[in-house]
Amino acid sequence: MSDVTKIVATAPQERLARDWVLVLAAAGIASEVERRGREWDVIVDADDADRAAEAVTAYETETVPTRAADQPLDEYGRTWGGVVAGMLLVLASRLVESSSSATALFRAGEARADAIVGGEIWRAVTALTLHTDAPHLLSNVVTGTLVATAVCFAVGPGVGAWLLLVTGASGNWATAMLHGAGHHAVGASTAIFGGVGVLVGLAIVRRQRRAWVPLAAGLALLGFLGTGQRADLGAHFFGFVAGVVTGTAIAPAPVLRSRAAQWLLALAALSAVGGCWLLAIERNISPG
Question: Structure pTM?
């Protein structure tokens, strides 16, 4: 951009300003977002100001009728669900490491494809709680806390816990079905990408005509974070897809407002994980 710039639009939310930047980029106009107090300005070169203003106005004219401004987004609100999820990942790792049967527990809980195909489907859940080393755990705790917080903010801690659990387990199961014997996987990242998919699915339904924005952002995040050297791309992809499908399906439903019901659902999800571990221990670790 040149030294001479001009503010062409001001948004009350950063997300809206970023949408305008995408619109301008599609029109071949370079732009930037700068925060000013509690508002976000979209800035372009002075020579492009008139064309940019027309593009933003045309976009708003098209989308405002579908926005239902008098109907705010139905979200649960602030919750500690994401922080609790991160703490539980650390606790699960410590419990396994401190056990005298740590190696046996790890082998009993990992997502071993041949075992899952053979009927040990609980491994799709237990594997979400295992990590290979401290860096692996730390990265998943950080990103998992952020994603789980966003999911729980949208749908509540109980519903969010089940969505993360189901999409993560679905990703591991689908990966096992695809790979067959020889494939092993551990880590919460499949559930994390399931959570990203849920957020994308919710946004697709709520944005309607701008559905491509969250979908493109989710795919970009999958490509950026989910394809590292040690990453299980298949599990990440299937978890993401499961999340998008699930998020799209539940988006029209009203948010469960009862805090008691939400935390009961969260406890039920935690109990389900515990039950899967009991099955893993019973079937794979001999007494004594």
Answer: 0.70
